[in-house]
Amino acid sequence: MSEITRATPVVEYTGRKGGIINGANVTDPNKILPMRYPWARTHYKKGVANNWVPEEVSMQQDVELWKKQGALSEDERHMILWNLGFFSTAESLTANNLVLAIYRHITNPECRQYLLRQAYEEAVHTDTFIYCCDTLGLNPDEIYNMYLDVPSITAKDEFVTEMTRSVFDPNFTTEGVANTQAFVHDLVGFYVIMEGIFFYAGFAMMLSMLRKNRMVGIGEQFQFILRDESVHLAFGADLINTIVKENPDIWTPEFKTELTNNIMRAVEIEHMYVDDTLPRGIVGLSPNTIKQYVEHIADRRLERIGLERKYHKDNPFPWMSEIIDMPKEKNFFETRVTEYKTGELDW
Ligand code: FE
Ligand code: MN
Questions:
Q1: For residue 70, is it within any domain?
Q2: Could you tell me if residue 179 is inside a domain?
Q3: 226 C-alpha vs ligand 2 centroid, how far in Å?
Q4: Residue 305 is part of a domain; what is its CATH number?
Q5: Which domain holds residue 261?
Q6: Residue 210 maps to a domain
Q7: Hey, is 106 helix, strand or coil?
Q8: Residue 72 clears pLDDT 70, i.e. is over it
Q9: Which ligand number lies closest to the CA of residue 88?
Q10: Would you say the C-alpha torsion 2, 3, 7, 13 has a positive or negative sign?
Q11: Hey, CA dihedral for 250, 31, 166, 303, is it positive or negative?
Q12: How far is the CA of 90 from the centre of ligand 1 (A)?
C-alpha cells in the first residue's frame, strides 16, 4: 500500500447525493457532469462573458488630470485616494477568504469551478490597483497601508474578518448546526457585506466621476469590477440560499436576527466610510445620497437571502443599474439606455 492510498475506509461515490457542503463522502469533487446546481454554471458563464484585464483601459487622460495642478479639487483627490486605499487591499482579503476558508468546504464541483473563476477575477482586480498606482505614480506604502492607517477603512475590514474568523481555523468543519451557521456567517460577511455593501459606496463615487467624464480610465476599470462583483454576490446569495434550503435547522429566528443586525451594522460602518471619504460632497454627489444608496442596496441584499427589508429607500442612482447591465463591449459614453436591457444582474 502506498502512502497515498486512502487511509479512511473507501467510500463509494454515489452519484450526486450529498449537499453543497458536507458532501465530502458522497460527492466526487472531480466529477462535474452531470451538474446538480445549474445556477453555478450560469454564474461561471457570466464571469467568462465579462472577461477583461486592466491594460485594456488607457490611463492617459487620468494621468494628465491627476498631475495637472488644480485640475481636480482636493475633495476629489481625497475621495479617489480613499477608494483606491480601500479596494487595493479589500480584493486580496476577499481572495484569501475564498481560497483559504471557503473552497475546502464546498465539495460540489460546479461551485468549485465558479470559485476558481472568482479567485482569478479577484487577482485581476488586485492587478487593477497595481496598474492604477503605477500609472498615476502613487506612493504604494501610502495606498497599501490605508487599511491599517485609516480608521474608516480598518473598521470595514475588521468587521468582515471578525465575522469569518472561525472558518479560518484549520480544524473547522461544517458539521452540525452551529458550524454551518458559522460558515454562513462567513459567506454573508464576504459576499453580502464586503462585496455587496462595502464595495458599493466606492462604486457609486468612482462611477459618478466617470459620468462627469473625469478620471475615465479608473472609472472604466471600476465599471468592469462592478460587473464582476455583481456576479460574485449573485453566486454568494445562491450559495447561501442553497445551504439554508439543504440545512433548514440553521435558519432559526435568532440566526436571522443576528444576520440582519450584522448587515445593519455594516450599513452604519459604510456610512462612516462615506463621511470620511467624501466629507463635503462634490458636484453632483452628496454624502447623504450615497448613504441612501447604501441603504437601498442593503435592502436588496437582505431580500435576496430571504431576510426582511429594513430601510425602504428608493434608488437615488438608477444609472448604477444601467452600468451593471451594459454589455462589456459597449462603451459607457456611446451607449444609450435603450440599447441594453436592465434588471438582469442588478439586484
Ligand atoms: Fe473583486
Ligand atoms: Mn469579488
A1: yes
A2: yes
A3: 9
A4: 1.10.620.20
A5: 38-339
A6: yes
A7: strand
A8: yes
A9: 1
A10: negative
A11: negative
A12: 8
Global pTM?
Answer: 0.90
What nine digits make up the cell of 67? 498631475
Ligand nearest the Cα atom of residue 125: 1
How many angstroms separate the CA atoms of 188 and 250, rounded? 14
Residue 341 CA to ligand 2 center (angstroms) comes to: 23
**In which band, very low, low, confident or very high, does the pLDDT at 325 lie, cut at 50, 70 and 90?**
confident
**Spatial distance between the Cα atoms of 150 and 188, rounded to a whole number of angstroms:** 24
Query: By mean pLDDT, which of 23-27, 106-110, 169-173, 190-194 is the weakest?
Result: 23-27
In whole angstroms, how large is the CA radius of gyration of the chain? 21
Q: What is the distance in A from the centroid of ligand 2 to the CA of 77? A: 25
CA of 15 to the centre of ligand 2 (A): 31
273 is catalytic: no
The predicted structure's pLDDT at residue 16: 42
Average pLDDT over residues 281-287: 91
The residue from 37, 44, 114, 131 that is catalytic is 131
Q: Is residue 59 part of a domain?
A: yes
Number of domains in the chain: 1
